[in-house]
Amino acid sequence: MYNPTAIAATNYQILPRRGKHKIFIGMAPGVGKTYRMLEEGHALKQDGVDVVIGLLEAHGREETTLKAEGLELIPRKQVYCRNVLLQEMDTEEILRRSPQLVLIDELAHTNIPGSKQEKRYQDVEKILNAGIDVYSTVNIQHLESLNDLVYRISGVVVRERIPDRIIDDADEIVVVDVTPETLQERLQEGKIYAPEKIDQALQNFFRRSNLIALRELALREIADNIEEESISETKNLHYNIRERVLVCISTYPNSIQLLRRGARIANHMNGQLFVLFVAPAGKFLSKSEALHIETCKRLCQEFTGELLRIESPNIVTTIVKIATQERITQIVLGETHRSRFQLLFKGSIVQQLMRALPQVDIHIIANN
Fold first, then answer.
1. Which residue of 22, 213, 233, 323 could cross-link 328, Cys pair, CB 3.0 to 4.6 Å?
2. In which domain, by residue range, is 355 found?
3. CB atoms within 10 A of CB 201
């Protein structure tokens, strides 16, 4: 007998939901990412969640090893590579065991040559696609887009990296943060590296200046990630965590002063600088005006800002459009050059911007 429901059931397989991914991120080894991950694993196990350890890298740290006790550990698989017996995470066994949650250390790890997946984060994606939740750990220096910056900060080339999308796609990110002084104390107490490596680490990667910069990098990266998530969820373009400063310049000489003042504001607020020049539609700049704008562009580059040059007949509309598009929080303008007659009939640019952008702060810089 014909049964369309039965045929549909045989032809279409219900795919499992994708597992949730929670990442514990820190500025450097030894901040306590693995320990924190294990703590949360124990808490969930007590709540009745089926938790296993898929891969643990304790690095000889006694506190971490003790914290793993009481949680089921999936044995590593043995792999021969160039006649040497090595160990690797057993992804297939994790999938076969199919727990509710698996804890996996060192997300940026490169697998043994010949493995099905080149990188551990690819194994994690496979596990997530099977509907298993994953908790993982990683340090900020392993993020692909920060590789050059981390090298400039520390002088260390980080070989093992993960794509930025892994952080962007995570369901939850936890920053495990300690002060640089606390981390150096842990290092000196032998809680991070073996005694023979401590002095070298303190003189190189674990220098206080490096740790301060890496800590700021970790906190800022996650703040930016949260900001983007907030924008996508609330559709409110002015819920910024990091200030974004827009300096509006013109062909008047005081634009140089405006630009410098805006750069100082952005620097003091640890914000991002944008410079906008609205060119009159269909009008060519004189040689002196073109040189002036070129000087502003060069200054903008020195201040690590971004100059936007847009041709438009309406200055206010363009400023509003760019401010909305770039999620601007502060606008820097020069004192108006309009006559009282123009202000009476056309209104003040500042008043128009305040009405159009009520959540943006506006700075008016007097002409000298």
1. 323
2. 244-365
3. 18
